Amino acid sequence: MRFFDFKPLRRVIDYLLNISEKSVVLPTMILEQLKALGNDTRMQMMEWLKDPLSNFPPQDHGDPAIGVCVTHLQHKAGLSPSTASAHLAILQRAGFVLTTRIGKWTYYRRNEQAIDDFAARLIIDL
């Protein structure tokens, strides 16, 4: 599986967010996705989720494909539960993460297809 790295795009994202507020009309979904990535904490979460086995302890469910428990993301980011959930909800609305619910726990993983589609749309639309 190929992973898209957002780090090199950070300047481009900041630039596009800045000009889109002034004059350029971007497609709504791309604008929402750019806004989702325009935050350092969310960018860091995406980077951590790229390699969950290296960045988080083993998950209770035992299957890395299911994702990382929100509690682990919250603790690693040093955030309150509500703040971590808000950041992850923004990433989910942008389509960058998928969730799996097991009992009372929610697990997050990257949506590689949506990330690839986003990168392709940036090339085509911009």
Radius of gyration: 15 Å
* Biggest sheet: strand arrangement: 1-3-2
CATH class bucket: Mainly Alpha
**Overall mean confidence score, pLDDT:** 84
Q: Count the helices. How many?
A: 7
Secondary-structure-derived class: mainly alpha
Helix content: 55-70%
Distance between the termini: 26 Å
Can you identify the CATH superfamily?
Answer: Winged helix-like DNA-binding domain superfamily/Winged helix DNA-binding domain
**What profile does the largest beta sheet have?**
3 strands, antiparallel
What is the number of E strands?
3
Total separate domains: 1
Strand content: 5-15%
Spell out the helices and strands N to C.
HHHHEHHEEH
Principal-axes geometry comes out as globular
Give the CATH topology: Arc Repressor Mutant, subunit A
CATH architecture: Orthogonal Bundle
* Low-pLDDT segments: none
Protein name: Transcriptional regulator, ArsR family
Keywords: DNA-binding, Transcription, Transcription regulation
InterPro entries: ArsR-like_HTH, HTH_ArsR_DNA-bd_dom, HTH_MetalResp_TranReg, WH-like_DNA-bd_sf, WH_DNA-bd_sf
GO molecular function: DNA binding; DNA-binding transcription factor activity
What does this entry look like structurally?
By secondary structure, the chain is mainly alpha-helical. The chain has one domain: Winged helix-like DNA-binding domain superfamily/Winged helix DNA-binding domain (Arc Repressor Mutant, subunit A). Helices cover 56% and strands 11% of the residues. A 3-stranded antiparallel beta sheet has the order 1-3-2. The two termini are 26 Å apart. The mean pLDDT is 84. This is Transcriptional regulator, ArsR family. It comes from Pseudomonas mucidolens. InterPro entries: ArsR-like_HTH, HTH_ArsR_DNA-bd_dom, HTH_MetalResp_TranReg, WH-like_DNA-bd_sf, WH_DNA-bd_sf. One of its GO terms (molecular function) is DNA binding.
